[in-house]
Amino acid sequence: xxVLIIDDEKNICSxxxxxxxxxxxxxxxCFDGGAGLQKALEESFDLIFLDVKMPVKNGLEVLENLxxxxxxxxxxxxxxxxDLQTAVTAIKLGANSFxxxxxxxxxxxxxxxxxxxxxxxxxxxSNLKKLIDYEYQLIGMSAxxxxxxxxxxxxxxxxGRILIYGENGTGKELVxxxxxxxxxxxxxxFVKINCAAIPKDLIESELFGHEKGAFTGAIKTKKGLFExxxxxxxxxxxxxxxxxxxxxxxxxxxxxNEFQRVGGTSTIKFNTRIISATNKxxxxxxxxxxxxxxxxxxLNVVPIRVPPLRERIEDIGILARHFLAAYSEKNAKxxxxxxxxxxxxxxxxxxxxxxxxxxxxxxxLVIMTDxxxxxxxxxxxxxxxxxAGKSRQDFEVDERIxxxxxxxxxxxxxxxxxxxEYEKSNHNVSRMAKELKTDRPNLHRKLKKYGIKS
Length: 454
Known about the structure:
Blueprint: E1 2-6, H1 10-22, E2 26-30, H2 33-42, E3 47-51, H3 59-69, E4 75-79, H4 84-93, E5 97-100, H5 105-135, H6 143-155, E6 162-165, H7 172-181, E7 190-194, H8 200-208, E8 209-210, E9 222-223, H9 225-228, E10 233-237, H10 244-256, E11 258-259, E12 268-269, E13 273-278, H11 282-287, H12 293-299, E14 302-305, H13 316-330, E15 337-338, H14 340-348, H15 354-368, E16 373-374, H16 376-382, H17 385-388, H18 399-402, H19 406-424, H20 429-436, H21 440-449
Parallel strand pairs: 1-2, 1-3, 3-4, 4-5, 6-13, 6-14, 7-10, 10-13, 15-16
Antiparallel strand pairs: 8-9, 11-12
Helix pairs in contact: 2-3, 5-13, 13-15, 14-16
């Protein structure tokens, strides 16, 4: 830890500094309150030892001024003329502890140990928050992601229910979390449930809770997720997998904006925003009688479609580098880079598992690669060949390509794919769109952009 000692007695500063350095910490000293306060405000310290009695500006004044700016700064007050009132005043002003002079080495060691543990915990929390931030960011610069960001911006402040469509691994939960963060409910809870993972006999209890004795095993009253998410957002993930019976109960709750716990008789009102997500085509499910049309209309106020990764290949390089940074830190490895040549087979691979599969693949690269730069050979050896569909030679880069930017390489590669598919479909754009699993307006724009079709 980095420790600051503020004391007008130089022998105290010297002996305490030496003791702390013997414990493995870095110690610095200031010999008056004014200079110590300035240093504490301008620089970052993990712990401060602050003497009470000093000329010009005493320790209590320093502490009071410090707390106006750095409310969480750990401070141990020290004094040779301590009395109970001084100690109480120091604690009220925000001191974390109080030690009497002459300083007892065992007590100093114990206090430092305690702060050391707190420091480690804070650092772990900080690292965890960074990883969470990495996990829950919408990363990319593609037009389709720009469209989603715009839809989120419009929909989030409203009270309308939202239905998010997309294949597995596309980031439907990320979109839901972003909607929550941009909504007026951002300070409330964000609660999610995977409807496909809960047995149909238990889904009602999970959503609405149960009373003690409602069924075998209900040994105490339990709140449901509608209550847990009160004042916030509830994500019903894979809502298309709910049984028809569960759909009927959910519909009734959404219509009346109230529910009863399983085995209960009292009615509970709720203030929860419902966001649903599915990897199914609910219109098809309705046609085959597997999903209620009236529930669909209740949930589908604002539909948002999250495209598969193969429809936003321009984001693959950005995502790859983002995950490289995240997983290098998570696995305590030096930050790795990836060559533009190594990205080429990743642009060709269809990523059936979408962003989730790409994320797992990048973590595998971080763990299995010793070099600081990830090269083409490594990517080709770990990427499933049957899906990549090409050999290493297909991705050898000549001098002309090496001089191009990643954007130029990707556009050139995309143009080749479109020309190939355009000829293969005999210039039938509808058939081509179906084959590439993209929408026709987007395909028309790209064909026009690359001069393939006027």
